[in-house]
């Protein structure tokens, strides 16, 4: 995210600028985020043991500084809190990504970042104005993506996005347009103005896309949930209620789909074709993220439509977008850069996998065959992501448990010892495809729940943690 004035940061650090001020809180937040991407051997040489240890130390330092109110500047607090929103705590940790993203929103609203610069601030330097706008859009994007990750309603309503969309000029000096946290791992790209302009363009398109994704999430997670007794399911009254809800929802789904299509047409061919073979890894990742987020939003929309009015056309469209997501991520995996994807990638691939599972139950042999191939690729990507994000490994365990039966003993404690678990489940795992879909969707609900076992319907035998 372009939330830091890197040009000023580098001057302050390397030239020991007597007039520069470097926030200790913000520095620790930057180090925490950058530790995710820097070569692990460098962290070991620095005495941190491994990547997880380094990230935890830097996070704890930033957290203590925030708790002690060491940093008083609200603008700097928003910058640092946004970076801390990439933290994912243990099940008993109440300060996960949702918590820190929420704090960044609170401080951003406190200083009026959601408002365009007023007439009394016309003397504000264009560079500072651009940084201010970039910071607000970063807050908005993090709210959208953490909502997607946590499977919740976004906290910022679309009406709050009052600031005009970003432009290339808002990124100022090319060196400051590099997108954190990739700066730490890709400092060699700083000399390439072309690369940085491409990253800035991707971020602009990404921000507009997140406005549409936020609307999709508002539709998906604001739907009334009916909890009817078993003997009322299929009743005439229930069917009539479902028909009325579907009739009122369908226009909203179609409008949202039309807006997404309009965004796609406006972006031209940048995301409609394969990425240039000569593109740098960082550009490839950013373009791929935009492509996958677009397809994931359509999968969400089309899945809701299919649930209300199942048609073969809707199923085919949903399947096509899910397969595209899997193919893009498979390509990233083959290029050995999947570890640089953000945690949102877990939600994206899980949503594609749930669709592949539905393909397997299709009566058409060709669809089933394609479903198995796509599922295999998706699970392979999920396994690759598990080396970086524990939630991906947990999703793999759910798949195995649903395949071999709900009586399978899940090694939650073993996972907790290694990297931690970030999920709470609302249903037991069953062998049916429908229950597997629900279980995998619950994998996307990662965050600060009290216990992974708290809401299970019954006890499960866990591995001995000693």
Short description:
This protein has helices at residues 6-14, 24-34, 40-45, 51-67, 74-84, 97-110, 126-150, 182-185, 193-220, 236-266, 281-308, 312-334, 344-360, 365-385, 390-404, 412-418, 433-443. It is mainly alpha-helical and 466 residues long. InterPro entries: Fungal_Detox/Toxin_TFs, XnlR_reg_dom.
Q: Helix segment count?
A: 17
Low-confidence stretches: 175-191, 225-244, 404-466
Strand content: under 5%
**Shape verdict:** globular
User: How much is the radius of gyration in Å?
Assistant: 23 Å
How many strands, which pairing sense, and closed or not: the largest β-sheet?
none
Helix content: 55-70%
Overall mean pLDDT score? 75
Total beta strand runs: 0
Give the helices and strands as they follow along the chain. Answer: HHHHHHHHHHHHHHHHH
Distance between the termini: 41 Å
Helix-strand makeup class: mainly alpha
Keywords: Nucleus, Transcription, Transcription regulation
Domain Xylanolytic transcriptional activator regulatory: 97-171
InterPro entries: Fungal_Detox/Toxin_TFs, XnlR_reg_dom
GO molecular function, one term: zinc ion binding
């Amino acid at each position: 995210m372009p939330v830091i004035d890197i040009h000023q940061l580098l001057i302050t650090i390397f030239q020991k600028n007597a007039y520069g001020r470097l926030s200790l809180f913000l520095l620790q937040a930057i180090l925490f985020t950058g530790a995710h991407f820097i070569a692990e051997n460098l962290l070991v040489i620095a005495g941190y043991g491994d990547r997880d240890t380094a990230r935890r130390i830097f996070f704890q330092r930033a957290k203590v500084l925030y708790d002690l109110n060491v940093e008083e500047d609200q603008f700097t607090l928003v910058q640092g809190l946004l970076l801390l929103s990439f933290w994912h705590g243990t099940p008993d940790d109440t300060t996960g990504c949702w918590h820190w993203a929420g704090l960044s929103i609170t401080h951003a609203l406190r200083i009026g970042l959601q408002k365009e610069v007023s007439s009394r601030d016309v003397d504000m330097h264009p560079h500072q104005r651009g940084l201010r706008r970039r910071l607000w859009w970063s807050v908005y994007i993090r709210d959208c993506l953490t909502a997607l990750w946590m499977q919740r309603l976004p906290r910022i309503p679309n009406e709050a996005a009052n600031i005009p969309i970003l432009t290339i000029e808002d990124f100022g000096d090319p060196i400051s347009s590099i997108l954190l946290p990739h700066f730490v791992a890709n400092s060699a790209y700083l000399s390439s103005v072309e690369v940085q302009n491409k990253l800035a363009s991707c971020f602009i398109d990404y921000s507009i896309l997140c406005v549409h994704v936020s609307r999709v999430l508002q539709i998906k997670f604001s739907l009334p949930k009916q909890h009817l007794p078993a003997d009322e399911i299929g009743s005439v009254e229930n069917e009539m209620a479902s028909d009325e809800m579907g009739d009122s929802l369908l226009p909203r789904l179609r409008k949202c789909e039309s807006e997404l299509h309009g965004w796609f047409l406006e972006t031209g061919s940048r995301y409609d074709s394969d990425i240039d073979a000569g593109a740098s890894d960082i550009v490839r990742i950013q373009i791929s993220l935009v492509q996958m987020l677009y397809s994931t939003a359509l999968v969400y929309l089309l899945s809701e439509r299919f649930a209300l009015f199942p048609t073969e056309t809707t199923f085919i469209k949903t399947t096509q977008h899910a397969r595209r997501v899997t193919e893009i991520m498979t390509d990233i995996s083959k290029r050995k850069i999947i570890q640089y994807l953000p945690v949102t990638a877990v939600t994206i691939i899980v949503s594609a996998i749930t669709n592949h599972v539905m393909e397997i139950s299709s009566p058409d042999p060709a669809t089933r065959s394609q479903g198995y191939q796509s599922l295999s690729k998706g699970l392979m990507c999920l396994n690759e992501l598990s080396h970086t994000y524990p939630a991906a490994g947990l999703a793999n365990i759910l798949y195995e448990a649903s395949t071999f039966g709900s009586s399978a003993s899940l090694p939650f404690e073993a996972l907790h010892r290694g990297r931690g678990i970030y999920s709470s489940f609302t249903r037991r795992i069953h062998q049916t495809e429908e229950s597997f879909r629900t279980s995998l969707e619950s994998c996307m609900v990662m965050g600060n729940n009290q216990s992974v076992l708290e809401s299970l319907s019954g006890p499960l035998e866990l591995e001995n943690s000693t």
